[in-house]
Specification:
It is found in: Cytoplasm. Forms a multiprotein complex with MMACHC, MMADHC and MTR. It catalyses: 2 cob(II)alamin + A + 2 H2O + 2 H(+) = 2 aquacob(III)alamin + AH2. One of its GO terms (molecular function) is FMN binding. This protein has 20 helices and 24 strands. Helix 8 runs antiparallel to helix 9. Among the domains are: about 160 residues, Flavodoxin domain (Rossmann fold, 3-Layer(aba) Sandwich), CATH 3.40.50.360; about 160 residues, Nucleotide-binding domain of ferredoxin-NADP reductase (FNR) module (Rossmann fold). The protein is an alpha/beta fold and about 700 residues long.
């Protein structure tokens, strides 16, 4: 436990991909400079803290995953506090502040944090500090940084009030000193994810957790040559500012190189989410024509000899490696090309100043260097400011050092957003842009996040195709840009496309007349069940599916399943089914022309398609987008939802489609209900709550 001489508070984090943990660690690091000590734990470590008896203030940092769910590490905690037998004063003694992380691209923004916040309030807990909701869509730091800045005064006031309540009126020197110049009032900091509501003011040099970087004689910009900022160049006022940069994160990992003897861990050891299955890819089909803007592939996996189970509408995850050439390039820059096959032993430094330091769970204790860079670390991750701060110390050129300092500073926040975050710059891009930067392997292990498995919607039915699992994806392309001079493919989609190339283009010399490759490639997968995005339990209930582009993927599984049920249960009553599909060109990327077969055999009652880039000679131009077609079918859509208790499913891109579909449905309901749009939106919210308006969307 923490030393009693310092004022203690409990710091809990619940993380899915590591961001909440990194922010909690930043709070822990800054606490000491404020005369405080954070007792930090993952929220899942319920044996190390007890909120039922906690007297000190509690700070919670929590992310959101999936469709608004708390992260996996918070599931047990959430289940515990949602116990309906708990009395309304269960946490009446508790003071807390909560920082929620989310992405406004998704409907249930920060819902993980909101769920915990709401329940703690219901159980009598009190805020000592206003809740903050940080938006990864515009940059977490826009809310996180000012929220942390305001936390310290709020904590000290909460601790002071706690002392007074305990009858201990002799204030601790460090606390009373800081409170003497501040009004004794309830501390409020209204935080919003909207950039225009934030006021980031530089109040000069702050405590020792922030270093004041004085402007020296370094001038990165030759005014005659560069008047616009870039990744490597700054302009006034940033180039002429004294900088407030983060404290240097403490080193905590050491790496010992060993020989080349041994075996790497199995990929399943890298996954904590459940059982993994290594399955063969039995089929690959390119669904788009060669001249289509996007390349769309369908892959079929053989799961017959496994215990893998799924329903139409479920998702699953693919364990994928980093690009081989990028790994080799990184090894070369690090000067470790000759040691790629050497085993390395990863340990915690004995003299580290990092509290509770431990080897990251996604890093094996012993494996080859190539294994770590290929399967464990997300080398494509956008570098966080703490990583940039650490890279400063590995950079020898003065101009490059200054620019990295700017990019991680408060003064350079706009440059960071534009040239790193929005440009999808990764470590390799930085090392090319700042060639004197030579980080150690241990630094990469400390700062690069876990290489995440990629999630895909199932596009098949096990009832229709026993022992087979299909999925559909676009091969993601990232074109070259000023901050990223090379084009790249998506980590997983690029790897899968390369892996199945022999199935797409079988060798002419192959003796296999069926065109299947004798040396079938295998991939490792694990299930990610969807709790709601399933067919209605009652087959007589009608439903509407909206899935442009690859958003049609789960609905193929829906229709396959429905067709098989109709064949097996001729006496059942089946509700009508609608499918709204859209793509750019009818002859290039109409992904599943066999939809007509579902229409002809009665599985699909209504099929509505549109093509956004095809020209038309018709007197009245046809609708371009699925939301336009929905409006044309307003009466039928309203009938299904209002009168027949039907379901509505949307799958695909959120930003450019799902929101527009939602607006169209609100307009349709407003018109058919003869009500104000606000009333229609309330009804739509009720449909969502009843799990009758369901989304599987991505940004």
């Amino acid at each position: 436990m923490c030393c009693e001489s310092k004022r203690r508070f409990l710091l809990l984090y619940a993380t899915q991909k590591g961001q909440a943990k990194a922010i909690a660690e930043e709070i822990w690091q800054q606490a000491g400079a404020h005369g405080l000590e954070a007792d930090m734990h993952c929220i899942s470590e319920m044996d190390k803290y007890n909120l039922e008896t906690e007297k000190d203030p509690v700070v919670i940092v929590i992310s959101t995953t999936g469709t608004g769910d708390p992260p996996d590490t918070a599931r047990k905690f959430v289940k515990k506090i949602q116990d309906k037998t708990l009395p309304p004063d269960h946490f009446a003694h508790l003071q807390y502040g909560l920082l929620g992380l989310g992405d406004s691209e998704y409907m249930f923004f920060c819902n993980g944090g909101k769920t915990v916040d709401r329940r703690l309030q219901e159980l009598g807990a009190q805020h000592f500090y206003d809740t903050g909701f940080a938006d990864d869509c515009v940059g977490l730091e826009l809310v996180v940084d000012p929220w942390i800045d305001g936390l310290w005064l709020a904590l000290k006031e909460a601790l002071q009030l706690q002392k007074e309540k305990e009858g201990m009126n002799n204030a601790v020197d460090a606390v009373s000193g800081s409170l003497s110049t501040a009004p004794h009032a309830v501390h409020e900091l209204k935080l919003s994810s909207e950039v225009q509501n934030l006021k980031l003011e530089d109040e000069g040099a702050r405590d020792s957790d922030i270093l004041s970087q004085k402007l020296d004689s370094i001038n990165l910009v030759d005014p005659a040559r560069d008047t616009e900022p870039s990744l490597v160049h700054s302009v006034p006022p940033v180039s002429q500012s004294a900088l407030n940069i983060p404290a240097l994160p403490p080193e905590y990992i050491e790496v010992e190189f060993q020989d080349t003897q041994g075996e790497n861990p199995h990929l399943s050891s890298l996954i904590s989410e459940g059982t993994t299955f290594e399955v063969p890819v039995t089929k690959a089909v390119q669904l788009t024509r060669g001249d289509a803007i996007k390349t769309t592939l369908l892959l079929e996996l053989d799961v017959a000899d496994t215990a893998f189970e799924y329903q139409p509408g479920d998702a699953f995850c693919v364990i994928c490696p980093n690009n081989v050439s990028e790994v080799e390039e990184l090894l070369h820059i690090l000067g470790l090309s000759e040691k790629g096959d050497n085993f390395v032993c990863v340990k915690v430094k004995q003299d580290t100043k990092k509290k509770g330091a431990s080897r990251p769970q996604h890093i094996p204790e012993r494996s080859t260097l190539k294994f770590i860079l290929t399967w464990c670390l997300e080398i494509r991750a956008i570098p966080k400011k703490a990583f940039l701060r650490a890279l400063v110390e590995c950079t020898s050129d003065g101009g490059e050092k200054r620019r990295l300092q700017e990019l991680c500073s408060r003064q350079g926040a706009s440059d960071y957003t534009h040239f790193i975050r929005d440009s999808n710059v990764c470590l390799l891009d930085l090392l090319h842009a700042f060639p004197s930067c030579k980080p150690s392997l241990s630094l990469l292990i400390e700062h690069l996040p876990k290489l995440q498995a990629r999630s895909y919607s199932v596009s098949s039915s096990n009832l229709y195709q026993p022992g087979r699992l299909c999925f559909v994806f676009n091969v993601v392309e990232f074109p070259a840009a000023p901050s990223r001079p090379v084009s790249r493919r998506g980590v997983c989609t690029g790897w899968l496309a390369e892996l199945v190339a022999p199935l797409l283009h079988p060798s002419k010399n192959s003796l296999d007349t069926k065109g299947e490759n004798s040396s079938t490639e295998k991939i490792s997968i694990f299930p990610r069940p969807n709790n709601a995005f399933h067919l209605p339990a009652d087959p007589s209930v009608p439903f509407i599916m909206v899935g442009p582009g690859t958003g049609i993927s789960p609905f193929i599984g829906f229709l396959q399943h429905r067709q098989k049920l109709r064949e097996q249960h001729t006496d059942w009553e089946f509700g009508e089914t609608w499918l709204f599909f859209g793509c750019r060109h009818q002859d290039r990327d109409y992904l599943f022309k066999q939809l007509q077969c579902f229409l002809e055999n009665g599985t699909l009652t209504h099929l509505k398609v549109c093509f956004s880039r095809d020209s038309s000679t018709a007197e009245v131009a046809p609708p371009k987008y699925v939301q336009d077609v929905l409006r044309l079918c307003a009466k039928e859509v309203a009938r299904v939802l209002l009168k027949e208790g039907g379901y509505f499913y949307v799958c695909g891109d959120k930003k450019h489609m799902a929101d527009d579909v939602s607006d169209a449905i609100a307009d349709i309901l407003s018109m058919e209900m003869e009500a104000e749009k606000l009333e229609a939106m309330k009804f739509l919210a009720m449909l969502r709550e009843a799990k009758r308006y369901l989304q599987d969307v991505w940004s």
